[in-house]
Design brief:
The structure holds two protein chains of two kinds.
Chain A (H helix, E strand, L loop, with lengths): L2 E10 L2 E11 L4 E5 L6 H8 L7 E6 L2 E2 L5 H7 L1 E4 L11 H8 L2 H4 L2 H14 L15 H13 L5 E5 L7 H16 L3 E5 L3 H7 L2 E6 L2 E6 L6 H9 L17 E10 L9 E9 L3 E5 L6 H9 L6 E6 L2 E2 L5 H6 L2 E4 L14 H9 L5 E2 L2 E2 L1 H14 L16 H13 L5 E5 L7 H16 L3 E5 L3 H7 L2 E6 L2 E2 L3 E2 L5 H8 L16
Chain B lengths: L1 E4 L5 H25 L4 H9 L6 H26 L7 H18 L8 H27 L3 H21 L34 H18 L1 H11 L1 H6 L4 H28 L10 H11 L4 H25 L5 H16 L1 H4 E5 L3 E2 L13
Antiparallel strand pairs in B: 1-2, 2-3
Helix pairs in contact in B: 1-2, 1-13, 2-12, 3-7, 3-8, 3-10, 3-11, 3-12, 4-5, 4-6, 4-10, 4-11, 5-6, 5-10, 7-8, 11-12, 11-13, 12-13
Classes of the chains: A alpha/beta, B mainly alpha.
Chain lengths: ~500, ~375
Amino acid sequence: MRLELLGLSKRYPGCVANDAVSLKVEAGEIHAILGENGAGKSTLMKMIYGVVKPDEGQMLWNNKEVEIKGPAHARQLGMGMVFQHFSLFETLTVAENIALYLDPSELGSMAALRQHIEQVANEYGLAINPDRKVGSLSVGEQQRVEIIRCLIQDIQLLILDEPTAVLTPAEAEHLIKVLKQLAAKGCSILFISHKLHEVNALCDRATVLRAGKVTGSCVPRDTSPAEMARLMLGDGLTLTKAFEPGPSGDVLLQLKDIEVPPTDHFAIHLRQLNLSLRRGEIIGLAGVAGNGQDELVDLLNGELSATKGQVLLAGEPIQRLGVQQRRHKGMAVVPADRIGRGAVATMSLSENNLLTGCITHGAKAGLIDWKVVSARAERIISHYKVKTSGKTEMAGSLSGGNLQKFILGREIEQAPQVLVCFHPTWGVDVGAANLIHQQLIKLRDQGAAILLLSEDLDELYLLSDRLGALCAGQLSPVAPKSEVSLERLGQWMAGQFDAQHDKETCHAD
Amino acid sequence: MRIEKRLQPSRAMVLLSPVLALVLTLIAGALLFKMLGHPAGLSLYNYFINPISDWYGVSELLVKVTPLLLCAIGLMLCFKGKVWNIGAEGQFIFAALVSGYVSLQLMAVEGFWVLPVIIVAGALAGMAWAAIAALLKTHFQASEILTTIMLNYIALNLLLWGVHGPLKDPDGYNFPESALFADHTLLPLLSEDYRVTVAIYIALLMLAVVWFVLSKSIFGFQIRVMGESAGAAKFAGYKNRLLVWSLLLFSGAMAGVAAVSEVNGPVGQLIPTLNLGYGYAAIIVVFMGRMHPIGILIASFLLGLTYVGGEMVQIEQGMPKSIVGLFQGMLLFFLLACDLLIQYRLVLPGFGPIRLPSDRTKQVAS
């Protein structure tokens, strides 16, 4: 037995994060931890990795009782962990970040380390330049660094907190292969994911947590995703089918020959972007992280300006307008980073509602009407089922999914004509994702135009009316989703825009 | 004993930290007095109670509070927006020089407009000095922490040049001082018996204005967002340059008015030693006052007391002048140390974490 937990409990003031959790992980087993946001998964992982000390309970490591003194101790024992919220220094390079993580004795020279990084990166197909500053990496690339950092040591247990959330399907598939390889070598893997089909494809066993307690376990191979979702949510949830495309109207948002040169060394050059987004439709853009998504969202939000081309909103050029002027005209944006972009961690939900909400409500002649702002915040909380102690709670203390619901609610409540939505359900549990999807469809049906950037293909196929992909700052053709097969979308994501027909060359794996 | 991170910042500790810092300062001060060979109790009494034991003493405290509060009001807005203006001192000195010059020019001119012109001249001079730092920050990405500090020394040397050169009183027996200002260029006193001027009303009025701006206006909200999260401010489209300029200009203006309150108030002329460090002490006021209007009002009295108390122990017990700086330094030092307890808490072996009754409990998400 690699790892055994016996009655592990962790209490925080006012809340039991884990209540007598027991589970077993065999050597070489891939074990999934399932649960909604707030179910206590991350706390459990942090206890195993020694970040958080359990209040009660025992932990056996290779059949011997251990008390993990801290992450360094856990690492010595042979554990590695990829956190959901990355623990990287943005001002340091990839290699420096990894060097910091290693024990001085195993570090050796930086040149050797760089080589080692490249070797691991190549082995697992996680391309990364060891000399890039982490701050300049996209979310997806940063996660690659986290994963490589764990794989660089010999590990017996790898803990992954939603590792595939920001990977493309191809990358995720690759990672799954990597994990299977690792497991075959005897490394055990603890895997938190919201993507049930992945758990299904990858994991040997799954333990389901709800409200800090183990509510069930199953063998994913023998259990359908719908059943697992039911175990997690505790009610008869039915997974929604793809939404039907709606009738689309006139063009609301148009990009014409947009050219945006990179603003720093690592930014992506947006080239020759042409796109017409119609009233009442959702265009989904797929793409591997770091292919120009950040730049495109900044461009549309008004933070980045194009050197060539036009951005038209309902026929009117807006490329010279600032963020707030665009919002006045009916633009809204849900950014990829919730904390630090979409919300201010140290401010209350009411105040976070005002962050972009002041455009439409709560402000007259530069003065704030806090009553209106609070009422709106309360409405968003109840309407979008945000789990929180109230409108005065700090945004930073909400779980990721709940904060995402709040941010999405705030943007939708602006009644936008055009909504740009980046990673709307990244790290969000099934229940919250469902709600977010329904709200987006509702907004579309009310006549708004939505541009959806996501790396979750299921989500793209579920929501979009038309599909396209971004690759190296260029836009693929955009076509109705019924005409875009998974293979074709994959080709687009790889930059093969001229692939005319779907060749029947599916990979055997 | 160990220190562990709190699940969320303690609100109680935010308020308790300055009190704790004051207590620690008093204890350290008592030890210091003891080591200097003075009776600790008497010295503390002379420092903190004796100065305000009569109405004249209280009025003298208000004389110190006025420029402190004016400087602190401007700095509070700056610090809320994480614009680290350390240059209130330089803005104060430059404004003193300019408003002093204007006062000397208007010696022979009577009129109701003279005083307003002097006040505006002071405010504009403070703004001009702060504008240098704003320009360097917004156009050349120079850290305002460094530029404002450096500008303090430049301003001081300009003042010294002024009082040693063109502004020296021709009838002043070659002392490096300007002529005494004419009465009509001095701020009106609240009462003939005391040195407090109407500037204290200006300070209180501006305090109320700033409070209103911070709590009720979109502008104040944007300042706070910029301070808490520059990325979110950028995402929401708040104009960073405009905010930085506004904050620096406003705090420059407030330091300028503070200079007028001092030079055209109790001092009444330009002297080389008119800067008693109000611009620096105001930084401590803002942090002691938790960047809240009521807080900085209270803290400006405390820091004002370090000045009048320092004078008292110099007179009564012959202590050195540097005692003022020592007490102000200790206050800031202990405050910054105690502020650790906002994010962290002490855990005593065998007792568990030290809890404050008002520590808010909350739902913890996984």
